[in-house]
Amino acid sequence: MNKLKVYAYAICKNESKYVEDYVKSMSEADGIYVLDTGSTDDTVKKLKKLGVKVKTKKLEPFRFDVVRNMSLDLVPKDADICVCTDFDEAFVPGWREKLEEVWLKEKPTKVEYLYNWSFDKYGNPGTTFYISKIHNRHDYTWYHPVHEVLKFTGEKEKSVIVPGIVLNHHQDLKKSRGSYLPLLELSVKEDPLDDRNLHYLGREYMYYHKWNKCIDTLIKHLDLKSSTWKDERAASMRFIARSYDNLKRKREAKMYYELAIKEAPYLREAYVELASLYYNEKNYEKAYELLKEASKITIKPTTYINEEFCWNYYFYDLFSVVAYYTNHLDDALANAIVANKLNPDDLRIKENIKLIEEQIKKD
To answer: In terms of CATH architecture, what is 180-286?
Structure first.
Protein backbone atom coordinates (compact mmCIF):
# COMPACT_ATOMS: atom_id res chain seq x y z
CA MET A 1 0.00 0.00 0.00
CA ASN A 2 1.32 3.45 -0.93
CA LYS A 3 2.18 5.59 2.06
CA LEU A 4 2.06 8.96 0.32
CA LYS A 5 -0.23 10.64 -2.18
CA VAL A 6 1.81 11.22 -5.32
CA TYR A 7 0.36 13.02 -8.32
CA ALA A 8 1.81 13.89 -11.73
CA TYR A 9 1.06 17.11 -13.57
CA ALA A 10 2.06 18.55 -16.93
CA ILE A 11 1.25 20.95 -19.74
CA CYS A 12 0.88 19.92 -23.35
CA LYS A 13 0.02 21.00 -26.86
CA ASN A 14 -0.17 18.63 -29.83
CA GLU A 15 1.67 15.79 -28.12
CA SER A 16 -0.32 12.92 -29.65
CA LYS A 17 2.72 10.79 -30.48
CA TYR A 18 3.99 10.98 -26.89
CA VAL A 19 0.73 10.34 -25.01
CA GLU A 20 1.05 6.57 -24.47
CA ASP A 21 4.69 6.74 -23.37
CA TYR A 22 4.01 9.69 -21.07
CA VAL A 23 1.07 8.00 -19.35
CA LYS A 24 3.03 4.75 -19.01
CA SER A 25 5.93 6.62 -17.41
CA MET A 26 3.66 8.39 -14.94
CA SER A 27 1.45 5.37 -14.19
CA GLU A 28 3.19 4.87 -10.85
CA ALA A 29 1.54 8.08 -9.63
CA ASP A 30 -1.90 8.07 -7.98
CA GLY A 31 -3.26 10.35 -10.68
CA ILE A 32 -2.23 12.42 -13.69
CA TYR A 33 -3.40 15.99 -14.28
CA VAL A 34 -2.73 17.77 -17.57
CA LEU A 35 -3.40 21.29 -18.78
CA ASP A 36 -3.76 21.29 -22.55
CA THR A 37 -2.87 24.71 -23.97
CA GLY A 38 -4.65 24.40 -27.32
CA SER A 39 -4.02 21.10 -29.08
CA THR A 40 -5.43 20.74 -32.58
CA ASP A 41 -4.67 17.02 -32.84
CA ASP A 42 -6.13 14.12 -30.81
CA THR A 43 -3.94 14.63 -27.72
CA VAL A 44 -6.83 15.43 -25.41
CA LYS A 45 -8.96 12.56 -26.68
CA LYS A 46 -6.11 10.07 -26.14
CA LEU A 47 -5.38 11.37 -22.63
CA LYS A 48 -8.98 11.14 -21.51
CA LYS A 49 -9.27 7.63 -22.93
CA LEU A 50 -6.29 6.61 -20.76
CA GLY A 51 -7.88 8.06 -17.63
CA VAL A 52 -5.91 11.30 -17.41
CA LYS A 53 -7.73 14.31 -15.96
CA VAL A 54 -7.44 17.05 -18.58
CA LYS A 55 -8.40 20.71 -18.67
CA THR A 56 -8.03 22.85 -21.78
CA LYS A 57 -7.01 26.49 -21.54
CA LYS A 58 -5.49 28.59 -24.30
CA LEU A 59 -3.40 31.44 -22.91
CA GLU A 60 -2.62 34.58 -24.90
CA PRO A 61 -0.01 35.90 -24.60
CA PHE A 62 1.57 32.58 -23.70
CA ARG A 63 4.13 32.18 -20.94
CA PHE A 64 5.35 28.96 -19.39
CA ASP A 65 5.24 29.95 -15.73
CA VAL A 66 1.55 30.86 -15.87
CA VAL A 67 0.47 27.61 -17.54
CA ARG A 68 2.73 25.55 -15.24
CA ASN A 69 1.02 27.12 -12.24
CA MET A 70 -2.38 26.51 -13.81
CA SER A 71 -1.51 22.83 -14.25
CA LEU A 72 -0.27 22.63 -10.66
CA ASP A 73 -3.60 24.08 -9.51
CA LEU A 74 -5.28 20.98 -10.95
CA VAL A 75 -3.49 18.73 -8.45
CA PRO A 76 -5.55 17.83 -5.33
CA LYS A 77 -4.78 20.02 -2.32
CA ASP A 78 -4.10 17.01 -0.11
CA ALA A 79 -1.25 15.75 -2.32
CA ASP A 80 2.03 14.96 -0.56
CA ILE A 81 4.23 14.99 -3.65
CA CYS A 82 3.82 16.65 -7.06
CA VAL A 83 5.78 15.31 -10.01
CA CYS A 84 6.17 17.59 -13.02
CA THR A 85 7.52 16.28 -16.33
CA ASP A 86 7.06 17.08 -20.01
CA PHE A 87 5.54 14.70 -22.53
CA ASP A 88 8.87 13.97 -24.23
CA GLU A 89 10.36 12.77 -20.94
CA ALA A 90 10.05 9.34 -19.33
CA PHE A 91 11.17 7.95 -15.98
CA VAL A 92 13.01 4.68 -15.70
CA PRO A 93 10.43 2.38 -14.04
CA GLY A 94 10.55 2.05 -10.26
CA TRP A 95 10.90 5.77 -9.57
CA ARG A 96 8.02 5.99 -7.09
CA GLU A 97 9.40 3.46 -4.62
CA LYS A 98 12.74 5.24 -4.55
CA LEU A 99 11.02 8.60 -4.17
CA GLU A 100 8.83 7.52 -1.26
CA GLU A 101 11.73 5.92 0.57
CA VAL A 102 13.76 9.11 0.53
CA TRP A 103 10.76 11.39 1.12
CA LEU A 104 9.66 9.54 4.26
CA LYS A 105 13.19 9.37 5.62
CA GLU A 106 14.51 12.85 4.77
CA LYS A 107 11.25 14.85 4.69
CA PRO A 108 12.41 17.25 1.97
CA THR A 109 10.40 19.98 0.27
CA LYS A 110 11.74 18.91 -3.15
CA VAL A 111 14.13 16.34 -4.59
CA GLU A 112 16.79 16.20 -7.29
CA TYR A 113 17.36 13.33 -9.71
CA LEU A 114 19.41 12.43 -12.77
CA TYR A 115 18.26 13.83 -16.11
CA ASN A 116 19.56 12.49 -19.41
CA TRP A 117 18.85 15.48 -21.64
CA SER A 118 20.24 13.97 -24.83
CA PHE A 119 21.39 10.69 -26.37
CA ASP A 120 23.70 9.77 -29.22
CA LYS A 121 22.61 7.64 -32.17
CA TYR A 122 23.59 4.49 -30.26
CA GLY A 123 21.40 5.35 -27.28
CA ASN A 124 24.20 6.47 -24.97
CA PRO A 125 23.45 9.47 -22.71
CA GLY A 126 24.99 12.74 -23.88
CA THR A 127 24.36 15.82 -21.75
CA THR A 128 23.43 14.66 -18.25
CA PHE A 129 22.69 16.68 -15.13
CA TYR A 130 20.46 16.86 -12.05
CA ILE A 131 17.06 18.55 -12.09
CA SER A 132 14.40 19.07 -9.43
CA LYS A 133 10.79 19.21 -10.58
CA ILE A 134 9.40 16.96 -7.83
CA HIS A 135 8.16 18.95 -4.85
CA ASN A 136 5.59 19.25 -2.09
CA ARG A 137 2.15 20.60 -2.86
CA HIS A 138 1.98 24.01 -1.23
CA ASP A 139 5.43 25.62 -1.01
CA TYR A 140 6.29 26.19 -4.67
CA THR A 141 5.27 28.32 -7.62
CA TRP A 142 6.67 28.48 -11.14
CA TYR A 143 8.57 31.64 -12.06
CA HIS A 144 9.85 33.17 -15.35
CA PRO A 145 8.08 33.32 -18.74
CA VAL A 146 10.42 30.65 -20.19
CA HIS A 147 13.08 28.36 -18.74
CA GLU A 148 10.79 28.54 -15.77
CA VAL A 149 11.99 27.42 -12.35
CA LEU A 150 10.35 26.44 -9.09
CA LYS A 151 10.39 29.26 -6.56
CA PHE A 152 10.12 28.33 -2.89
CA THR A 153 7.42 30.20 -0.97
CA GLY A 154 7.57 28.38 2.36
CA GLU A 155 9.61 28.90 5.51
CA LYS A 156 12.55 26.49 5.14
CA GLU A 157 13.48 24.72 1.92
CA LYS A 158 15.16 21.31 1.93
CA SER A 159 16.34 19.62 -1.27
CA VAL A 160 17.86 16.13 -1.41
CA ILE A 161 19.11 13.88 -4.20
CA VAL A 162 17.25 10.62 -4.80
CA PRO A 163 19.69 7.97 -6.05
CA GLY A 164 18.27 5.75 -8.75
CA ILE A 165 15.61 8.06 -10.15
CA VAL A 166 16.45 8.69 -13.81
CA LEU A 167 14.42 10.81 -16.23
CA ASN A 168 15.16 10.43 -19.95
CA HIS A 169 14.48 13.21 -22.44
CA HIS A 170 13.70 12.38 -26.07
CA GLN A 171 13.34 15.82 -27.64
CA ASP A 172 11.12 16.41 -30.64
CA LEU A 173 13.55 18.33 -32.85
CA LYS A 174 10.77 19.24 -35.27
CA LYS A 175 9.04 21.40 -32.66
CA SER A 176 9.66 25.11 -32.98
CA ARG A 177 11.37 27.00 -30.18
CA GLY A 178 10.58 30.29 -31.89
CA SER A 179 8.80 31.65 -28.82
CA TYR A 180 11.87 31.25 -26.61
CA LEU A 181 13.74 34.37 -27.72
CA PRO A 182 10.92 36.91 -27.15
CA LEU A 183 10.02 35.18 -23.87
CA LEU A 184 13.64 35.33 -22.71
CA GLU A 185 13.81 39.01 -23.61
CA LEU A 186 10.63 39.52 -21.56
CA SER A 187 12.09 37.49 -18.69
CA VAL A 188 15.23 39.65 -18.56
CA LYS A 189 13.10 42.79 -18.80
CA GLU A 190 11.04 41.64 -15.82
CA ASP A 191 14.06 40.60 -13.77
CA PRO A 192 17.25 42.20 -15.19
CA LEU A 193 19.37 41.07 -12.24
CA ASP A 194 18.64 37.37 -12.70
CA ASP A 195 21.99 35.99 -13.84
CA ARG A 196 20.56 32.66 -15.06
CA ASN A 197 18.12 34.25 -17.49
CA LEU A 198 20.71 36.72 -18.78
CA HIS A 199 22.99 33.78 -19.56
CA TYR A 200 20.14 31.97 -21.33
CA LEU A 201 19.27 35.08 -23.34
CA GLY A 202 22.85 35.49 -24.51
CA ARG A 203 22.98 31.81 -25.45
CA GLU A 204 19.72 32.18 -27.39
CA TYR A 205 21.17 35.11 -29.35
CA MET A 206 24.07 32.82 -30.22
CA TYR A 207 21.66 30.14 -31.47
CA TYR A 208 20.12 32.78 -33.76
CA HIS A 209 23.58 33.91 -34.95
CA LYS A 210 23.06 37.34 -33.44
CA TRP A 211 26.74 37.47 -32.57
CA ASN A 212 27.05 41.05 -31.33
CA LYS A 213 23.91 40.78 -29.19
CA CYS A 214 25.25 37.54 -27.75
CA ILE A 215 28.54 39.20 -26.82
CA ASP A 216 26.90 42.28 -25.27
CA THR A 217 24.39 40.23 -23.28
CA LEU A 218 26.90 37.73 -21.92
CA ILE A 219 29.34 40.46 -20.91
CA LYS A 220 26.46 41.89 -18.86
CA HIS A 221 25.98 38.44 -17.36
CA LEU A 222 29.64 38.26 -16.36
CA ASP A 223 29.42 41.74 -14.78
CA LEU A 224 26.47 40.85 -12.51
CA LYS A 225 27.34 40.51 -8.82
CA SER A 226 25.08 37.48 -8.64
CA SER A 227 26.99 35.76 -11.45
CA THR A 228 29.20 33.58 -9.26
CA TRP A 229 28.74 30.03 -10.59
CA LYS A 230 32.03 29.34 -12.35
CA ASP A 231 30.60 26.67 -14.67
CA GLU A 232 28.02 29.06 -16.10
CA ARG A 233 30.48 31.97 -16.23
CA ALA A 234 32.89 29.82 -18.22
CA ALA A 235 30.05 28.88 -20.58
CA SER A 236 29.28 32.57 -21.15
CA MET A 237 32.93 33.14 -21.97
CA ARG A 238 32.88 30.24 -24.45
CA PHE A 239 29.76 31.58 -26.16
CA ILE A 240 31.37 35.01 -26.42
CA ALA A 241 34.41 33.31 -27.95
CA ARG A 242 32.22 31.43 -30.45
CA SER A 243 30.60 34.70 -31.46
CA TYR A 244 33.94 36.42 -31.97
CA ASP A 245 35.12 33.42 -33.99
CA ASN A 246 32.08 33.74 -36.27
CA LEU A 247 32.82 37.45 -36.61
CA LYS A 248 36.34 36.47 -37.81
CA ARG A 249 37.88 38.10 -34.76
CA LYS A 250 40.17 35.23 -33.84
CA ARG A 251 42.29 37.11 -31.31
CA GLU A 252 39.27 37.99 -29.15
CA ALA A 253 37.92 34.44 -29.55
CA LYS A 254 41.17 32.94 -28.26
CA MET A 255 41.27 35.43 -25.39
CA TYR A 256 37.79 34.45 -24.16
CA TYR A 257 38.51 30.73 -24.49
CA GLU A 258 41.61 31.26 -22.36
CA LEU A 259 39.50 33.18 -19.81
CA ALA A 260 37.02 30.29 -19.74
CA ILE A 261 39.84 27.84 -19.03
CA LYS A 262 41.07 29.99 -16.15
CA GLU A 263 37.51 30.37 -14.81
CA ALA A 264 36.76 26.64 -14.75
CA PRO A 265 39.92 24.61 -15.43
CA TYR A 266 38.08 21.46 -14.30
CA LEU A 267 35.78 21.51 -17.35
CA ARG A 268 36.80 20.13 -20.74
CA GLU A 269 34.71 22.42 -22.90
CA ALA A 270 36.95 25.47 -23.31
CA TYR A 271 40.05 23.33 -23.89
CA VAL A 272 38.29 21.39 -26.65
CA GLU A 273 36.76 24.41 -28.38
CA LEU A 274 40.04 26.31 -28.36
CA ALA A 275 41.85 23.19 -29.60
CA SER A 276 39.36 22.97 -32.47
CA LEU A 277 40.09 26.57 -33.37
CA TYR A 278 43.84 25.89 -33.42
CA TYR A 279 43.26 22.69 -35.39
CA ASN A 280 41.45 24.67 -38.09
CA GLU A 281 44.46 26.97 -38.22
CA LYS A 282 46.73 23.91 -38.57
CA ASN A 283 48.45 24.78 -35.30
CA TYR A 284 48.52 21.13 -34.26
CA GLU A 285 51.07 21.54 -31.47
CA LYS A 286 48.87 24.01 -29.61
CA ALA A 287 45.78 21.88 -30.22
CA TYR A 288 47.61 18.82 -28.87
CA GLU A 289 48.65 20.64 -25.68
CA LEU A 290 45.07 21.70 -24.99
CA LEU A 291 43.57 18.28 -25.64
CA LYS A 292 46.22 16.64 -23.49
CA GLU A 293 45.13 18.88 -20.62
CA ALA A 294 41.47 18.16 -21.31
CA SER A 295 42.14 14.42 -21.23
CA LYS A 296 43.29 14.74 -17.61
CA ILE A 297 39.68 15.59 -16.72
CA THR A 298 38.28 12.07 -16.49
CA ILE A 299 35.00 12.57 -14.63
CA LYS A 300 32.11 14.05 -16.59
CA PRO A 301 30.35 16.69 -14.47
CA THR A 302 26.60 16.27 -13.90
CA THR A 303 25.77 19.83 -14.87
CA TYR A 304 23.75 21.19 -17.79
CA ILE A 305 26.89 23.06 -18.88
CA ASN A 306 28.58 19.88 -20.12
CA GLU A 307 28.66 19.47 -23.90
CA GLU A 308 28.39 16.12 -25.69
CA PHE A 309 31.28 16.73 -28.07
CA CYS A 310 33.72 16.85 -25.16
CA TRP A 311 32.88 13.31 -24.11
CA ASN A 312 31.72 11.49 -27.23
CA TYR A 313 33.73 10.21 -30.20
CA TYR A 314 34.46 13.77 -31.45
CA PHE A 315 36.87 14.49 -28.60
CA TYR A 316 38.86 11.30 -29.07
CA ASP A 317 38.83 11.58 -32.85
CA LEU A 318 40.17 15.15 -32.75
CA PHE A 319 42.77 14.20 -30.14
CA SER A 320 43.88 11.26 -32.28
CA VAL A 321 44.29 13.39 -35.41
CA VAL A 322 46.32 16.17 -33.77
CA ALA A 323 48.42 13.59 -31.92
CA TYR A 324 49.21 11.96 -35.25
CA TYR A 325 50.20 15.26 -36.85
CA THR A 326 52.48 16.02 -33.88
CA ASN A 327 54.02 12.53 -33.95
CA HIS A 328 52.55 11.42 -30.61
CA LEU A 329 51.62 8.10 -32.15
CA ASP A 330 50.75 6.22 -28.94
CA ASP A 331 48.22 8.92 -28.04
CA ALA A 332 46.97 8.92 -31.63
CA LEU A 333 46.29 5.19 -31.60
CA ALA A 334 44.78 5.05 -28.12
CA ASN A 335 42.34 7.85 -28.87
CA ALA A 336 41.43 6.51 -32.29
CA ILE A 337 40.51 3.18 -30.71
CA VAL A 338 38.22 4.92 -28.19
CA ALA A 339 36.68 7.03 -30.96
CA ASN A 340 35.99 3.86 -32.94
CA LYS A 341 34.29 2.20 -29.97
CA LEU A 342 32.05 5.23 -29.50
CA ASN A 343 31.30 5.60 -33.22
CA PRO A 344 31.84 2.17 -34.81
CA ASP A 345 30.13 3.08 -38.09
CA ASP A 346 32.67 5.74 -39.06
CA LEU A 347 34.91 4.21 -41.72
CA ARG A 348 37.32 7.14 -41.66
CA ILE A 349 38.20 6.44 -38.02
CA LYS A 350 38.81 2.76 -38.86
CA GLU A 351 41.13 3.80 -41.67
CA ASN A 352 42.92 6.17 -39.30
CA ILE A 353 43.62 3.29 -36.93
CA LYS A 354 45.24 1.29 -39.76
CA LEU A 355 47.26 4.31 -40.83
CA ILE A 356 48.54 4.97 -37.30
CA GLU A 357 49.41 1.29 -36.74
CA GLU A 358 51.37 1.23 -40.00
CA GLN A 359 53.25 4.37 -38.97
CA ILE A 360 54.11 2.90 -35.60
CA LYS A 361 55.51 -0.21 -37.32
CA LYS A 362 57.66 1.94 -39.60
CA ASP A 363 59.04 3.88 -36.65
So the answer is: Alpha Horseshoe (1.25)
